[in-house]
Design goal:
Blueprint lengths: L1 H47 L3 H7 L2 H12 L3 H12 L2 H14 L3 E7 L5 E6 L5 E11 L2 E9 L4 E2 H13 L3 H8 L6 H16 L2 H10 L2 H4 L2 H11 L4 H15 L10 H6 L3 H15 L3 H13 L3 H14 L4 H13 L3 H15 L16 H4 L2 H7 L1
Helix pairs in contact: 2-5, 3-4, 3-6, 8-9, 9-11, 11-12, 14-15, 15-16, 16-17
């Protein structure tokens, strides 16, 4: 009896400790997630303020440099020297990572903590463009620090972009280059061209570097890493060359999740709106709906002349972002084309009430005749009378 009693007691105690452990784990997980959210919101604020000093304080450049060096070097001293050197360039690295956001005055917003534990920051631009950053965090006793970034517009980690750029520009050896580009073999002549390309890029001769890119063997030229480089260079040459390189990316790597986002504009310009819609839906599946990605989705539906869907999508955007005038205008345009004139009047009345304005008949005297059917509708006449 005594033995049985103790077994039961131990079992009960074990169950109690297990429950306590589970509750403490859940509490820790919740606290950790709240901590990540607060840290990511602070990081987003630093981006919006273009505050490199604050971003540097939040970014663990040593951990980042160690990660890059491990992929570049096998010798411990070379790794240590590289990490030490890269630490001196932290401000330049972060400025480069966010240069487009700074220049275009993008608005960064903490969105959510993803299932993979990475906090997600969305960036919206005045022209309707969007981008996303996943923060790779390291938690220590003193708190969180960012050790790397996944940037959706590149489809890669910042560390991977740096590794590939260094490997390509420095062209250390044919074997390392082949590994970086994912090809079987690179001859000495091609290695020499890579070195020349790196020198031209360093000197600012982007047109000369781009010409060398075009001279590479086909397997090298069409590798993902090389196309990434060609796309960056082509943007400094012409829109025609830029579209050409995006076309090659779509042809050789268009099925990859990592190119979905970067190819949306290309498919739009090619008139392949179905593919563009498929790709933005992929982004939404990954990150969830927000005003930015829904606005892009609504535009794809509009271009496909599916006005019933575009009006529903733009309606979601307006609810999420009432200040988005472009989305409101697109919603009204979709409703007019859908001939849902009661809904058009309801929206216009709402605009009148919210902005203390009054619409007059002459506001709808469009030379193209766009509003003609609307003006003949009973909903319009009842509103104006």
């Amino acid at each position: 009896m005594f033995v049985i009693h103790n077994v039961r007691l131990i079992s009960c105690l074990g169950l109690i400790f297990l429950i306590a452990f589970l509750f403490s784990s859940i509490a820790h997980s919740e606290n950790s997630e709240r901590g990540k959210a607060a840290y990511a919101a602070k990081f987003a604020s630093a981006i919006n303020a273009s505050d490199i000093d604050e971003l540097s304080d939040m970014f663990n450049i040593k951990a980042f440099g160690d990660k890059v060096s491990r992929q570049l070097y096998t010798d411990k001293k070379e790794r240590k020297d590289f990490s030490k050197e890269i630490s001196k360039q932290e401000a330049d690295i972060l400025s480069g990572a966010f240069v487009f956001v700074f220049q275009q005055q993008g608005k960064a917003t903490f969105k959510d903590v993803l299932d993979n534990g990475r906090p997600l920051i969305s960036v919206s631009f005045d022209n309707g463009g969007i981008d996303y950053f996943e923060l790779i965090l390291n938690e220590t006793e003193s708190g969180f620090q960012v050790t790397d970034l996944f940037v959706l517009s590149t489809g890669k980690l910042l560390s991977d972009v740096m590794v590939q750029n260094i490997q390509i520009i420095l062209a250390p050896s044919s074997s390392l280059l082949a590994r970086a580009l994912g090809v079987k073999k690179i001859d000495k002549k091609t290695v020499a061209r890579f070195k020349s390309m790196g020198e031209l890029m360093t000197s600012g001769d982007f047109e000369g570097a781009y010409k060398i890119v075009q001279s590479f063997p086909e397997d090298v030229r069409n590798s993902r890493a090389m196309l990434d480089r060609a796309i960056v260079l082509s943007q400094r040459i012409s829109d025609e060359e830029y579209q050409k390189q995006l076309g090659l990316l779509a042809k050789h790597h268009g099925d990859s999740d990592t190119t979905q986002f970067m190819l949306i504009d290309y498919y739009v310009l090619q008139g392949e709106h179905g593919k563009a819609l498929r790709n933005i839906n992929g982004v939404i599946d990954r990150y969830g709906e927000d005003a930015g990605n829904l606005y892009v989705k609504g535009n794809m539906q509009f271009l496909m002349e599916d006005y019933s869907l575009s009006s529903m999508t733009f309606d979601k955007v307006v609810k999420l972002d009432p200040e988005n005038i472009d989305a409101l205008d697109s919603l009204i345009t979709s409703l007019v084309l859908e001939e849902r004139f009661d809904a058009v009047v309801a929206r216009l009345k709402q605009i009148e009430n919210d902005n203390d304005v009054i619409y007059e008949n002459e506001d709808f005297n469009d030379e193209s005749g766009f509003y003609d059917a609307f003006k003949q509708s009973e909903a319009y006449k009842a509103w104006m009378n």
